[in-house]
Structures are given as structure tokens and as C-alpha cells.
Amino acid sequence: MNNSIFNSAANDLRLQILYSGYCVCDSSWHTEALATAFCRLYIPESGGGVLQCEEQMVEMIPGYAYLLPPELPISYYCPNRLQKLFFHLSLLSPDHYDLFYGHKRLLQVPLTESQLAEYIALYHSQSYYSCLKLKQKLYGLLLDLYQQIPASGQQVPSYSFHVRETIDYIHRNLSAQLTVGE
User: Fold this and answer.
1) Which of 60, 99, 145, 152 is the most exposed place for a label (fewest CB within 10 A)?
2) What are the angstrom distances between the C-alpha of 157 and each of 11, 68, 84?
3) Predicted confidence (pLDDT) per residue in 10-31, tens digit
4) Model pTM?
């Protein structure tokens, strides 16, 4: 007996890191109601900031990782100083939708000091090993965050044959020259 979901999805689930950085922010780091097509993962090392969406306000402090889901209007600011590691990323399902898409709350998970130090050391290292190790750690971190989403939001979509074929065609042929007739 096989697991058809695992067999069809395991190789098509992927972590796409669009941009990353390690920075020191001051009071000029702020925005109002920013909604992006990707997730933002913030891992503060020192200082603090504030994240807000709808009715939720979270003080961003060291000892936690924070995920801002895609398309969720987020406001943020730094009252004084914030030193952080950050990633702009997408955790894509086989149909190319972000697994966090549609989630309406900020997510956070605790980090130990040793985890934080390891993430930062791996990020600053200049080797393929460190890149792979950090990506593995990010998968684990994102899994911990994903577990906070209610089970109803984690369902694997089921598409008809024609819808699946259309999605596959679009992804194979996605370009500026694609016409409605195609």
C-alpha cells in the first residue's frame, strides 16, 4: 500500500527563498498595511520591534521567530533598534500556492539561544554545507509554524483532471507571450 499524497507531493513541495539578509534597523524601519505575495520570516537577535495585523499586535523580541503570511496586510515599526536575520520566502505546494496563503494571523515560535546563534552562524558562513544546513533548519522552523494553522487550512486540494491539466499547462508555459487562446 502506498501513500498517494506523499508520492505525488513530496518532490513538488519546495521552499523558495526569494531574498534574505541580516540587518540592524532603527526608527526608520516602518510601514503601514504592507501585503506581499511572499512570507516574511523575522528572527530577531537583539532589540525589538512591533508587528501588527488587523486586531493582533505582537512585540517582536529575541527568543522567537515570526512569520508574516503572504497577502496579509502587516504594519511594523522599530521604536529604537532591532538586529535581525530575515527571509522573504514561499513554501510552495505542488499547485504553486504558498502553504501559508490565506492565513490571517501572525505566527511565532520560540527559539533557544543556541538555535538563534546557529541560524546566524550558518547564514554568515560561505559554504554549500552551511546553505543546505540552514535551509534544512528553515524547513523545520516553517513546519513548527505550519502546525499552528488549524487542520481545516491544511487540506490537500483535490482538482478535477481538466483543472489539474490547466494548472500544469500554465506552470509549464508561463510567460509574457501566453495568450488567452492557449
Assistant:
1) 152
2) 16, 23, 35
3) 788 889 999 999 999 999 999 9
4) 0.83
